[in-house]
Fold each of these.
Amino acid sequence: MNEAHLNKNQKRTSWVVILTAVTMVVEIYFGISSGSMALLADGIHMGSHVLAIGISWLAYVFVRKMSKKESYTGDSNKILSLSGYTSGLMLLIFAIVILVEAFDRFFHPHAINFKDAILVAVIGLIVNILSAVILHHDHEHSDHNIKAAYVHVLADALTSLAAIFGLTAALIWDIPFIDTIAAIISSFVIIKWSVGLLKDTGGVLLDVNKQEHHHSH
């Protein structure tokens, strides 16, 4: 993997870390103050992005430094895939946490300030779309690190959409639990995405593709 590629993706991830960190604080604050489970879930999930994409950024910094050393003979793709695998694992854990919290809120409902919650969910969605544009990695499928960061952003865009849909429906029809159901549905989708990411990155770490190629001969 060349230096230009690593430098470009390092810059992409650093911008998204800053962007998501600011939005995370805003969403968690308004999620708590407005009483919206879906919005709080969105904020918590965005917090996982700050950590996960931060790990992706550190992976690029590490690989770039190591690749400059003549003594380094390791596989940089494996380091980036390890970072991607870690991100996938974090994505799975946070999705399960959101699921547990949503079920708890389903049986113990709270009053929701819909207007504030919807406004911040829309802001969150805009940030996610902007982050997705920054992290778009063309056809660089071999880089599981940037792919993992991209999946995190897409997952958060989904939770933002779920929050907007759930809150709007709850406001119009006065059925507060729709907000919680939206968070539960998005959690299941994110779990599916995270499992796919774990399979892809795990395959690289275990040399599954190389083994399959070897057996085919």
Amino acid sequence: MLTAHIIKTIQSLDKKKYRQKYNLFLVEGNKIIKELPTSDYEIENLYSIDPDNLVFKTQEIEKILPADLKKISFLQHPKDSVAVCKIPESRILKDVSIQLILDGVQDPGNLGTIIRLADWFGIEQVICSNDTVDVYNPKVIQATMGSFIRVNVYYTDLEEYLAEYQYPIFGTDMNGENIYETKFPEKFSLVFGNEGNGIRPSTEDLITKMITIPRFGRSQSTESLNVSMSAGIILGDIFSKK
């Protein structure tokens, strides 16, 4: 039974301080939830309006009413199930060929889309500055469409991390070398900056080379591209050359 205390606790997980307090986050929708048993994520509680659509050998599923689902869901139109999951211990992967680095990305949709892109292109890790939006934000989790399960996201002090990084670091900016003329090595990091301010100066000082997506429009009046859109274009070009 969903008590008022349980509902209040789950509702509080939309805020980072309560996710950290309880060490829990929410995953919504059967499509993503069905992938959890084969991942490193542990389910604390599972609530569904139709448990028969979820088959878990080791997980008890609590049946709830659609009205209760609306109370614990962060979606405007919740469909089926909600899983309350434990936040795993943070770790960093040491030996990856290509990784993305996010310097102050604030929009949950952008982070979720970038994680999804990383998964699509087989990139195992995304390194984030400490002020980048929390990966366990419900909007980020939803935007990843399950890709958060397969991509390691690690938060750290970028200045310290990049100072010790041994491979080339490419930064994305409006001014830089044309990506279509850039040769990328086997191992490198690709940095994307904040939506409004770009890459901060302390990070930029540690970048090996700045690259840019050239504009082909006749008017040349578009100021910039959305950061997740830029990531998609750049990754598409990098992997087309492999």
Amino acid sequence: MTLALLHTSPVHVPVFEALRDADHPGLALRHLVHEDLLARARDAGPDAVRGDIEALLAEAVAEGATAVLCTCSTIGGVAESATQSLGVPVLRVDRPMAAAAVARDRVVVLAAIDDTLPPTLALLAEEAGDRCVDIRTVLVAGAWARFEAGDRDGYLELVAAAADRVTDADVIVLAQASMADAATRTATPIPVLSSPRLGLSAAAETAG
């Protein structure tokens, strides 16, 4: 079994390799890194890259992928919608995290780019269903500029500081997979959820 992972940044590759080694030894991963997809989705909307995503995933399936995991929250919904046409499961990395988050009453979502918020909020609403959940968002000022500059520590510190400023919440959601390590830098007593480990576990089960 082979799990293809669609990334929009190369920083995700070692993260998911480490999680695979720790939690799912023996699972074959194939990494597809296409940074341009996020840039174009930010400029013209996620639907603008739908055709390219479907073509990339179809190629991965033709080469043996038994499931696909999209690690980018901005284009995750578009990727997920390709499941039927591809004939294999396509999962978005943040769905298991969203399901866990909306089991609580008050959710605060942290994001480094505003384009991530609409698809994340839509996913949370979908997972919440009829359940009434108070969801608030925080855009972490300056964080994405640090990420794009390659300042990973600075990026994570800004995200962690934003999490520590959150009050009146039952859970904090880190909307982007790249934020995951910020959870280990926080001092907040509020649970902080990130997507990589939960998403990979769900995808590994599906790929098998």
Amino acid sequence: MPATATPAVLTARALLLDMDGTLVNSDAVVERIWRGWAERHGLDGDEVMKVVHGRQGHASMAVLLPDRPVEQNLADNARMLAEETADTDGVVEIPGASAFLAALRGLPHALVTSADVALSTARMNAAGLPLPEVRITAESVGASKPDPEGFLKGAAELGVDPADCVVFEDSGAGIAAGRAAGMRVVGVGPRAGFHGPDAVVPDLTHVRVEARADGTVRLHIG
């Protein structure tokens, strides 16, 4: 389904936020880097782009080149991360991200991203966005999305039950991870609606945050 806003009101005790495609539009960089990788390995660029969003790079490589040794994927991923961290041309905020993060100041929330510390810092800085105090990055987990480990760790760090968390995600892998963690998911952007989130918005201008006296966060979507 297309990313038109689906009106909803959700109440949570914490929000867990993906970065790429959710807070930051890094598609230009991702396309450049991964299409180059696809060409070097004789793969169809369009098919590669269907896989890479939301996953750690080595996990995408494992899907795309299943017979390749893990060690080679990890080494290749390290080179790719360095390239992506150095390339911030075209990295901008998703519309509404700055205001959305400002509204969450002082409320329980965490960044849960498949990027590592260096890449997430570079992209959030390039987009002019503040980094949440609690961050779950590639270094924090042993398994990439769609595994729920990152979201479960984010909830644990915030001291909130997974069922009381709402995830914001753009990709199929990320939405599947949120679902597997037992959380509700708000899909953001053109990819999200195809993967069954609880609600979907074209961007974050369609989300209003209301802090309630009982410590919960009410999300007005639509």
